[in-house]
Amino acid sequence: MNTPANAAVVGAGPNGLAAAVTLARAGVPVTVFEAAETVGGGTRTQEIVQPGVLHDMCSAIHPMALGTEFFRQFEIARRVDFAVPEASYANPLDGAHGIRAAIAYRDLDRTREELGGDGTAYARLYRPVLNHLEGVIDFALGGSLLRWPQSIPAAITMAMRTAEQGTPLWGARFREEAAPSLVSGVAAHSIGRMPNLATAGVGIVLGALGHAGGWPVPIGGSRMITDALVADLVAHGGRVELGREIRHLDELEGFDVKMFDTSTRGLLSIAGSALPAAYRRALARFRFGDAATKVDFVLDGPIPWSDPRVHAAPTVHLGGTRGEAAHAEREVARGRHPEQPFVLLAQPTEFDPDRNPAGTHAVWSYTHVPHGSNIDMVSAVTTQIERFAPGFRDRIIAVHQTSAADLAQYNNNYVGGDFSAGAITLRQLLARPVISPEPWRTPLPGVYLCSSATPPGPGVHGLSGWYAARTALRREYGLPAPELGVAGP
Ligand SMILES: Cc1cc2nc3c(=O)[nH]c(=O)nc-3n(C[C@H](O)[C@H](O)[C@H](O)COP(=O)(O)OP(=O)(O)OC[C@H]3O[C@@H](n4cnc5c(N)ncnc54)[C@H](O)[C@@H]3O)c2cc1C
């Protein structure tokens, strides 16, 4: 068999590496060029706050690594150890109706029982989604949203729930604060005003994964996921060049296929005038959204949650009630820094105690801020945690902020600190970055975009890279998608 013409992948984030592994497994010689000195993009695990204590720099919790098709075929669970806690996420509250925290357990019945008065309404929101989970995942994450869904009942189930939770009807089924706070805490993962259809859709899918496979914590940190991808790539003849930022298409001369795990802005600047004007205009129209500022802590003990059940959850949403969280998100959308911000917090030490020296607890958190923000959020974030965990402040050994502006410096893809590589709006879920049945393909022969600027969007799922590579294999090489499993070729 002739060796297929070679390919370059620009960027070693989870999507770039998923693309590289897929091409290499099909027999294509692949070189990955990564600007940073380490692989991983949004999956790096490193010392941030103090020497010897590891923090996930970006992603920490991985519902999509165990719940979606690329990593299922790659058999990630056989390559990386995951802790899959009984609880997926929690939303502490001030104690109205006697409930100090809403907890989403993997077991929906247990969730219902502990939620109080709205438990049944909550279970009725998610049960049909869980009954159609495979079809819902196919609909939401199966590639372009313009595809005909595999399962019409699943698509209708998803659409109805999104329409309910993404519009002013969102409170209709609930009477208390706990259950709706749980639903909107997940929706708020995609930064934006609430209610809106795009965030509601994300919330329904991530919430359903929380009640199915769970929200796993990789033992050793998120880097284990991309380390596994690199190991497989190298075992199949691929290469990675670190410290190689690609600035111009000419640098990739000699490569027949070029895959870009970059933002749309990155692709525009690299390929520039080689791209047809209409496509350039479409990329230039693609809008970046608001941002994250990260605050990492090292503590001398676990977080003293008022409600001890919160220790069971790897992710904690700290926004208070749904109304408070929506207010905080609205402030960000207006370009303001909320006094009581919505904070996402992960407490990996609870589930991976050997990751760090005994007696130290790593706490990962971020909060939403306006695009490009450089404002100090440490005090606001600390106060919000202290509100639900009195005594937290006294446990802090060290703290470190990475502002949205710092994040943009850290990774070219996070323009202005927008880690979704483009705002999550309904329009930009359909046109990501263009409306096309194959949005990964650019009009330039052999040039593909494979980052989370393409469907299905942000998150560590490798799907954008996998879809892009499969499209390239079919169109450029006439090859089928390869086996990806441990025992594969
Ligand atoms: C604070 C934070 C928390 C997050 N939490 C989670 C979470 O818990 N769970 C989850 O699933 N997701 C989370 N995410 C999102 C997730 O990290 C991203 O969606 C994901 O990493 C996107 O993967 P990617 O491969 O598209 O891009 P990236 O991971 O951003 O990788 C792109 C890579 O390309 C490189 N690159 C860019 N331009 C060039 C160039 N010109 N030349 C060479 N190299 C280049 C970059 O250096 C980078 O390494 C989080 C992100 C952040 C910032």
Overview of the molecule:
The structure is a single chain. The longest helix is centred in the last third of the chain and has 15 residues, at 463-477. Helices cover 36% and strands 15% of the residues. The chain starts with 6 loop residues before the first strand and ends in a 12-residue tail after the last helix. The strands form four sheets. Strands 7-6-12-13-14-11-15 form a seven-stranded mixed β-sheet, sandwiched between helices. A five-stranded parallel β-sheet has the order 9-2-1-10-16, covered by helices on one side. The protein has a two-stranded antiparallel ribbon with strand order 3-4. The protein folds into two domains: 7-47 and 220-286 and 420-477, 3-Layer(bba) Sandwich (FAD/NAD(P)-binding domain), CATH 3.50.50; 69-119 and 171-217 and 289-409, Polyamine Oxidase, Chain A, domain 2, CATH 3.90.660. The chain has 489 residues and is an alpha/beta fold. It contains 18 helices and 16 strands. Bound molecules: flavin-adenine dinucleotide (FAD). Flavin-adenine dinucleotide binds next to helix 1 and strand 11.
Proportion of residues in helical segments = 25-40%
Largest sheet descriptor: 7 strands, mixed
Give the uncertain stretches in residue-range form. none
- Global Rg: 22 Å
Shape: globular
Associated small molecules: flavin-adenine dinucleotide
Second-tier CATH architecture of the largest domain: Alpha-Beta Complex
Which whole number gives the mean pLDDT?
96
CATH fold naming of the largest domain: Polyamine Oxidase, Chain A, domain 2
Give the DSSP E fraction (strand runs of 2 or more residues): 5-15%
- The helix count comes to 18
